[in-house]
Amino acid sequence: MAKIFNTTAACIPEEHYMVNIDRRLEDIKALVDQNKYFTINRARQYGKTTTLKALAKYLREEYYVVSMDFQKFDALKFENGNIFSVSFLTTFLRLFQTNRSALTDGVRKAIDDLKECMILQGSYFGMKELFEGLSDICSESEKPVVLIIDEVDSAANNQVFLDFLAQLRAYYIDRRERAAFWSVILAGVYDIKNLRYKIRPEDEHKVNSPWNIAADFEIDMSLSKEGIAGMLLEYEADYHTGMDVEKMAEEIYQYTSGYPFLVSRLCQLMDEKVSRQEEAGSKAAAWTKEGFLMAVNMLLAEKNTLFESLIGKLDIYPSLNAIIKDILFAGRPVACNPDLAELDLAAMFGFIKNQKGLVEVANRIFETRLYNLYLSAEELRNQDICRRSTADKSQFITDGHLNMRRILEKFAEHFHELYGNREDTFKEEEGRTYFLLYLRPIINGTGNYYIEARTRNMTRTDLIVDYHGEQYVVEMKIWHGNEYNNRGERQLIGYLDDYGLKKGYMISFNFNKKKEVGVKELVIGDKVLIEAVI
Predict the structure, then answer these.
(1) What percent of the chain has pLDDT over 70?
(2) Contact status, residue 22 vs residue 54, Cβ threshold 8 Å
(3) First-residue to last-residue Cα distance in the chain
């Protein structure tokens, strides 16, 4: 059976195209070898379950691995310590004995004694008895025992789970005196050390004894450009599309920053949907720059659980929503601060990243999706500029190419008409918002855009527009005099060199009453700059 790209549940190497994660497994095994207890907390659909399943196989030569999933424990199993202990033990023993050709006499006796204790104690069988029996099994086992629990935060909002963590902690501390699990790995979205975010305010007393023995887990679980290229080489060997593997891997990485679900989904869309579109019509056409951008558009337009989670968090945390909106539209720098709950949560959920001490949205896909969300709300409040754009749209596309100069000319005309008398009350960042509102209906469904993070600030922003495989760089800035403008021209020329382009565009929002409004063309060296003063 041919392999496919997978975006549901765990990936299986024999069935799915996957990035090689051997190096990641080596790094995690190093923590296990060091006798560490730790958590793997990453955002939704970040490859945790795939990694854990591969890790269990990777460790089995040297360890007995028991890998369970708390999502398979229904709420009743956490009703009290007795029910949980019995459920945990039956699951543990079933998994512990899986793939064992034989048990030593010592291990067999420890298991029998624990089962007998469970029967004799009846409803009094609890965590104390459970962990004493597990300690005996670990003591008699000929290999160290490693416990892996996936979806552990699905149980985090109850006292039974916290009691379980406390027992793990106690046995870890006393492991030199009494046998315990060699290593424990808990995986979920929430960091177990940050349980305060998962627990209801009225239950805050539950966090008095956190699982503070957990070692820091700093292993990068994003997918690298090299890893993506390796996966594409495997696909190319099967289908011979003629794609430029290195360039395609770079494109995918630039848009996703290696977020596993986004990487797989873009590949899946190119393979299964773009290749069947009339505009592409083949796998060869799908794995081109134009085909890739079609996949980006499809991804940005679809509803999926990852995006729903992203938007849902903004609804739950209004202050986080305000911070993200400020970053995107106002260019105001926000310092990373782990003590600020909203930023700590956003980082834990994978929506932002730390870039040299400042907050950035995690990847271009998330960023553009958020821009679209905010702009949709702005469209309701600023319908005049949107109507002008829709009415003008036919002027801007010629033989499938975008006429960016004409867009700037008409935008300047409409902006002056609609907002020309608002200089005294106009906020600087509003100009950028209005241009995005004007641009979006023109490229919607065919092109996309993103803001270059390196240039986003209160005075300058570079907008990159992709349309039918062609790129356009538009610098949007606030007018601060001729010298500043000249410096901006030089910066734009350097940026065009980065993109291998000969033509660039500038929009200067000038709030001086004596400004000279209009669009002009400058030739500087081998570059052409189209500048609009608005």
Answers:
(1) 91
(2) no
(3) 59
Is pLDDT of 204 > 50?
no
Q: How crowded is residue 527: how many other Cβ atoms within 10 Å of its Cβ?
A: 17
> Could you give the CA distance from residue 252 to residue 244 in angstroms, rounded to a whole number?
12
Task: Give how far the C-alpha of residue 283 lies from the chain's centroid of Cα atoms, to the nearest Å.
Answer: 27
Would strands 460-467 and 447-451 be described as parallel, antiparallel, or unpaired?
A: antiparallel
pLDDT at position 191: 67
- Distance, CA of 190 to CA of 156 (rounded, Å): 9
Under 8 Å between Cβ of 361 and 324: yes
Residue with tokens 């209005």: 434
Please enumerate in sequence order all residues whose Cβ is within 8 A of that of 13, keeping only pairs 6 or more positions apart, or say none: 54
In this structure, the number of other CB atoms found within 10 A of the CB of residue 526 comes to: 9
**Rounded to an integer, what distance in angstroms lies between the CA atom of residue 385 and that of residue 24?**
50
Q: Which two tokens stand for residue 187?
A: 């995986």
Residues written for the chain: 534
Q: Which three-class secondary structure state does DSSP give residue 334? A: coil
DSSP class of 326? I
* Cα separations in angstroms, 12 against 49, 53, 127, 266: 11, 9, 35, 18
Decide if pLDDT at 133 tops 80: yes
3-state SS assignment for residue 354: strand
Mean pLDDT, residues 306-335 taken together? 84
Q: Which residues contact 206 (CB under 8 A, 6 or more apart)?
A: 159, 162, 195, 199
Coarse DSSP helix, strand, coil percentages of the chain, rounded to the nearest 5 percent: 55, 15, 30
CB distance 491 to 475 below 8 Å = yes
Q: In what order do the strands lie in the sheet with 503-509?
A: 447-451, 460-467, 470-478, 503-509, 527-533, 518-524
pLDDT of residue 121 exceeding 90:
yes
pLDDT tens for residues 28-83? 999 999 999 999 988 889 999 999 999 999 999 999 999 999 999 998 999 999 99
For residue 485, the SS3 value is: helix
Report pLDDT for 418.
84
CA–CA dist 90, 92 (Å, integer)? 5
**Residue with more model confidence, 491 or 461:** 491
Give the max Cα distance, the chain: 94
Strands (E), 178-291: 183-188
Between CA 106 and CA 394 the distance in angstroms is 81
On average, the pLDDT of the chain sits at: 87
Structure tokens at 335: 């310092």
**Is residue 207 predicted with pLDDT exceeding 50?**
no
